[in-house]
Design goal:
elongated, three-stranded antiparallel sheet, about 70 residues, 3 strands, alpha+beta
């Protein structure tokens, strides 16, 4: 098994955290905008596709808006 070295460069870790934070914020804003337009959030659980509707309902049936 290959050993993975521990990262110790604090500056690199800080910039990595900043990129992750920016990405998370972008995803949050995109989800919010999609809800405003009536688009569901799509996710996979146990290999099955699900849709989280703007009203909070979770379904495995593809919504009409995505057909």
């Amino acid at each position: 098994m290959k050993e993975i070295k521990k990262i110790t460069d604090k500056e690199w870790l800080a910039s990595d955290l900043e990129v992750i934070t920016i990405g998370n914020e972008a995803v949050r804003k995109a989800k919010e905008e999609n809800r405003k337009h009536g688009l569901p959030e799509v996710f996979v659980k146990a290999g099955k596709l699900y849709y989280l509707m703007p009203n909070g309902e979770v379904t495995d049936v593809r919504p009409e808006i995505l057909k």
